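This part of the workshop introduces the protein records we will be handling. An example says more than a description, so a record of this kind follows:
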Amino acid sequence: MDFLARIPFVDLLGFELLRLDPGASEIAITVREELTNSLGVAHGGLLMTLMDIAMAHAARSPVEPEGEVLGTVVTIEMKTSFMRPGTGRVVATGRRMHRTVTLAFCEASVLDARGHLVAHSTGTFKYLKPASDGQARRIHRENASD
């Protein structure tokens, strides 16, 4: 299954999109040594990125089965709690809890292979207006200089 957009950072990490349903997504990764912290478990940044991408996919997922994918989103804010170390294969499930015309409110949980809760996040995502690729790059450059 393909991700909704190509994100080079996600390609580098090796995330795998398992499921994309209306209002929900599942994304997995097997924690490799280069993705661990000094304790030898999944780095918190890896888990946060996994949940961020799972929530963004849930935000963009169709409202109805076989419906259109919603517009591109950017993360506005994210709160994360870590419950236990993540090792082996971990799976994030993202859920769209509510949406408006401009915002999506989501949550995500990461479970380990035994079904134990590793981390949980909530996040707010903003839907972007469609823009040409060139226009999106120009807007990005202008905002980066602020």
Notes: The mean pLDDT is 91. Residues 8-144 form a domain with the Thiol Ester Dehydrase; Chain A fold (CATH 3.10.129.10). Strands lie at 16-21, 24-30, 73-82, 89-99, 103-111, 117-127.
